[in-house]
Amino acid sequence: MYTTLMGVAAGTALIVLVLLGVELHKGKVTTFGGWALGLAVPGLLLTVTGLHMTLTQSIKLEGEVFKNSIFGELSAAFGVLALAAAFYLWRRGEPLLARPDLVDHLYVIARPVSIMVFGLGLGLLACTIGAFDYQIFATAPQAEPIMGTWPKWLVNTGLSSLLALPAVGALLAPVAIWRANRRLLGIAGVAFFAAGVGWVLTGALVYYTHIAMDFNLRAG
Q: Residue 70: left if φ>0, alpha if ψ -120 to 50, beta else—which one?
């Protein structure tokens, strides 16, 4: 199971996206090549792993199958969005730098695709509500340190928050883009950045907890 890689990749893409937005508004972007790579790498990982999880239903544990939708479908969708952004920046980035209205032009370009972002925000919101209502992240076995040994409510709240934060960002960002509202976009950016850091740290941590769980289960 590769939810660990998904977490690191999704978090990285969110962080790169926010940092790009900050640099754009500061007028400090001199080339889009590096930013395109920064989105393409996690975007490709998310697309491949997300589609595989969605199509094969790779999480097969009883009572856990629904997580294929939460992780697989949302990862695949975000991955495609990241790849699309990377491709656009790679193909059109340099001519864009010559435009005096660069930021305003990008608002216009982003408007149609922001509708998809809003839809994903609604999906994330639904997943967040479901996560809190049904404690879906409080299922780790005792053999898994932290995730299985810390208070269930704390683990569930923490992981559910990692769905809530990007939900807030994905619901606010399209409104900000259509209105060209930089303040509102900044709030969305804070939510995305916090979610990105949270997912990277959680994904990295779970590499350890999975290793420890495997050894604990074998030790009996």
A: alpha
